[in-house]
UniProtKB/TrEMBL annotation:
Name by which UniProt lists this protein: Haloacid dehalogenase type II
NCBIfam families membership: HAD-SF-IA-v2, HAD_type_II
Pfam families cross-referenced by the UniProt entry: Hydrolase
Cross-referenced Gene3D superfamilies: 1.10.150.750, HAD superfamily/HAD-like (3.40.50.1000)
Cross-referenced SUPFAM superfamilies: HAD-like
Record key words, sorted: Hydrolase
InterPro entries assigned: 2-HAD (IPR006328), HAD-like_sf (IPR036412), HAD-SF_hydro_IA (IPR006439), HAD_sf (IPR023214), S-2-haloacid_dehalogenase (IPR051540)
GO molecular function: hydrolase activity, acting on acid halide bonds, in C-halide compounds
Amino acid sequence: MTQIRALVFDVFGTVVDWRNGIAREAAPFLKKWGRTDIDPIAFSDAWRGRYQPSMEEIRSGRRPYCRLDVLHRENLSYVLQYFGIEEAAISEQELVSLNKAWHRLDAWPDVVAALDRLKPHYILGPLSNGNISLMVNLARHAKLPWEVVLGAEITHAYKPSPQAYLRAVEALDLPHAEVCLVAAHNSDLRAARSCGLSTAFVPRPDEYGSHEKADLKADSEWDVIATDFTDLADQLLVGKSA
């Protein structure tokens, strides 16, 4: 903990509440399209359900790298079809606006105050699968005090591919152990640790609502295990001046 100089964060699920945010953004569109029979939360879950399969096409080498905004837009088409919504009847402006919902997600309540406390002592930034414009817009919307934006568009690799972590650390020009990934997903932390990064676990039991199963607790002895971002800041700031 004493050697850590940079904190990089998984964003979707760890920093921001994508599930309720997408549901909130989707609800007025579903109403406009006459589909109040569709639960906005179910729509959100279905859209997010395409997240890993679409990135796996790139991780596997079957498809060249493209930005997450592009994948989200393709996944939106899939979800509309899944729910029996005729995409051709929707204006391009509406589709673009709904796809940008991923740029307008709220932070979990404990995040911003904790980041503000950590910022004087650590380099802060996302290490996310989101592209740069998405991360910048999200930071402005949710008031996230990032100093640098790292992640897939910088590395041209999607987590948990090793290059997603290694190239991000290279960009910071720091020893690997001095960069700590903060995440609510044990698999993300395992991949980061295998690349030599320090690790911090913060659970988000509400990320998937009652469907949450995999990451209710830390499944390894990560360098820091916190109950929330407030506790994370408390542990990391021990011995540091205010």
